[in-house]
C-alpha cells in the first residue's frame, strides 16, 4: 500500500523537476519493454498486459514502484518506458518538464464514503457530521471538498473533518467503531464492506463517482488513474505505442470478463487477498478511455482540482502535446 508521504509526493512538491531532466536522452527501440506502476488498482491493466505479451510488442516486464521519485528516475533514464500513474500526477510531471505523454485514463481506485450512521443516506447528509478522510490536501481530500462545496456545504464550517494517515488506518478506525463515516478507495472499501458484513456491522456506501455525475453533469468516470509513456517512444516508435494502446484495451476487456482469474493473477502484486480484489472488480469494472478521446472531460476534472489546489495539476492545464490519440 502506498504511504501518505509517497501519495502526497505524487501530486505535489516531491514531483518537482530534477535538474537533469532537460538533458534526457532519446532511446533506441527497446528489446524489452519495461512497464511500471504502484501497488494500486490503476496498475491492473499493465499487470495484465505484461502477462499477455500480445503481438506487436516486445517481451515485457512489470516493475513495481512505491515512491514516485523512482518512477520519475526510471522514466528519465529509460529503465522503464511506460508507467501507470495518478492522472493528476501525469499532468504535474508533464507541466514540470518531464518528457512524458499520456496514453489513457482509467477509474482505478474508485472512492466511496462508508458510514455506520443510519442518518447518512446521501452525500449531503454529511453536513454537520464527523468525516474521516485521508491524505490531507491531496486528491481524496480535494474531491470530497469539491463535491461538498458544489452542494452548498462548507467543509470547514459545516463538517468536522479529520484525517487518517492512510486508507488502511481509516479502514481500521471504521471497523473498530472509532469513526462513523470514512472515505476509502477501492479495493479497501470493498474489504470494509465484506468485513463489516461478516461481523454483523451495517454499512451504507456512497460512491463518489455517482455524486460526481450528479453534481457536475459530467458522465466521464473520475479519471483517477492513467498510463504514461516516454515522449521519445511516442515520437520514434508510433507502431509500438499503437500496439501498446491496443494491448492495454485488450487487457482491460479480459480483466472485466474474468475478474476471478484476474484477481488470482494480480493479488500478489498488490498485496491483497484475491477474493476482495475479485469482488471489487465485479462491482466496479475497469473503465478506460484513450487520452485524446478523454481530453475534454479530463480537462474538466483538472479544472475542478485547480479550483481548490492548482498544484494538483502542476499549476496549469497540459497542452496539446500531452495527449496521445
TrEMBL record:
<dbReference type="InterPro" id="IPR027024">
    <property type="entry name" value="UCP027386_ABC_sbc_TM0202"/>
</dbReference>
<protein>
    <submittedName>
        <fullName>ABC transporter substrate-binding protein</fullName>
    </submittedName>
</protein>
<dbReference type="InterPro" id="IPR015168">
    <property type="entry name" value="SsuA/THI5"/>
</dbReference>
<dbReference type="GO" id="GO:0051536">
    <property type="term" value="F:iron-sulfur cluster binding"/>
</dbReference>
<dbReference type="Pfam" id="PF09084">
    <property type="entry name" value="NMT1"/>
</dbReference>
<feature type="signal peptide">
    <location>
        <begin position="1"/>
        <end position="28"/>
    </location>
</feature>
<feature type="domain" description="SsuA/THI5-like">
    <location>
        <begin position="66"/>
        <end position="262"/>
    </location>
</feature>
<keyword id="KW-0411">Iron-sulfur</keyword>
<keyword id="KW-0479">Metal-binding</keyword>
<dbReference type="InterPro" id="IPR006311">
    <property type="entry name" value="TAT_signal"/>
</dbReference>
<keyword id="KW-0408">Iron</keyword>
<keyword id="KW-0732">Signal</keyword>
